[in-house]
Amino acid sequence: MPNKEVDTNLTSKPVDTVHEPEKKRAFHSKQEKPAALFSTLPYYSILGLYFLAYILIEKYHQPWSAGFIVFVLLPICDYVFSEDWLNPNSTQTKKLDDDVLFKIPLYLTVIVDWCFYFWVLNHLCAQPFNLYYCGGVLFITGILLATNIVVAHELFHKHDFLGRFVGGFTLVRTLYTHFFIEHQYGHHRNVATPEDPATSRYGESFYAYLPRAVFGSYASAWEIEKKRLINIEECSTHWHPKNRMIWYTLGYFIYPAIICKYFGFYGMILSLYLAFQAVLFLEGIDYIEHYGLERKEIAPGEYEKVNIKHSWNAPHRITNYILFKLQRHSDHHENGYKPYQTLATYDESPMLPNGYAYCIMMGFFPHFWFKVMDPCLMAYRKGGVPTPEQQAEANKHMLILFTLVSTVFGALSLIGYIRPY
């Protein structure tokens, strides 16, 4: 969806002039415990997606309608509802940090996702379905599985054993458990540098980025684990039982074998597809989060400290609730162990034109991605914003893509009502 406001960080002023600072949008509440910060209720909204997906599949046999909700209705909601610029102050941050109630929706989402995942495998293996129906069920399940990686990410990014264990273990289904190592100790260290395989470069399409991100992250995780064992654990070799990458790699073969035992060969094929789609969308998230942003090299191989200018943010309210404020990504990278409820948003950070639900889809279409994001990136690098003409052109391309996506998902949904499974 196009920007509904022209006067934003990424709109309206020429990029070749120095501007007066725009009016600040990030703010603190004067209330001691504003509901917008202290209520956990919005973060249960992700469970609504699971409920809708289950009802649409089990009762109405319309799985593609769930895809329509995610990639059409959610971007509309992000466009219509007010943006979220409310930040907690230091006192509120301390209270929020100590509030264990915010952990409940995380753990509950993990439980629900595992249940939904196995229900889908059983559902699809119980009787033959046509390709249209099966594809729709797999598509929405893959989306939810990718979303659950976001939850796992929030859990394992903390110091407590339970969160780290649950967050790491839930990655098993995606055959991407090395993400637990590489993301924390590779990506967060090297983000926005050439050393990071999970940082997309300026002018690089998602499809050029994807192989480097997938294979580079796996290789990076091995290297990180090797250094840990030799330099910290003082092992003589990294071929040691303490090497987590050995067990993770073995798990990539053991887990499908377990699925094959209980759900058959067909169930294993379905689980492999779900892992593929979840990783595809995970890397789609990584692609849009740091596109073209660079840290200054202050010495050979040494870069400036990560700050709030090295990640794209999105202040869009609805997808921020569903993704546990992952879209406040700049603060997450500057303060990796902050719990989601305390993350802040900043005017100084670069801003995406819509929430992740839309921007991930836009990233899959390089023509539209470059037309929208390249002017934003170039303007941000120069400390300005795109010209009105550039913004109008970007809005036009965003609307064209949204129309195409809406038409495709609308048609897929309509087919289900005309010709049931």
Instruction: Give the number of helices.
Output: 15
Rg = 22 Å
Q: Secondary-structure element sequence?
A: EHHHEHHHHHHHEEHHHHH
- The general outline is globular
Approximately what portion of the residues adopt beta-strand conformation?
under 5%
Overall pLDDT level = 93
The parts where pLDDT drops under 50 for at least 5 residues are 5-21
Helix content: 55-70%
Number of strands: 4
By helix and strand content, what is the structural category?
Answer: mainly alpha
The biggest beta sheet is recorded as: 2 strands, parallel
Query: Largest beta sheet: what is the strand line-up?
Result: 1-2
| N-C termini distance | 32 Å
In short:
This protein is mainly alpha-helical and 421 residues long. It has helices spanning 35-38, 45-58, 63-80, 90-97, 104-126, 131-156, 161-169, 179-190, 206-232, 244-289, 317-322, 329-334, 356-363, 366-381, 388-418; strands spanning 27-28, 86-87, 297-299, 302-303. A hairpin with a 2-residue loop joins β3 and β4 (302-303).
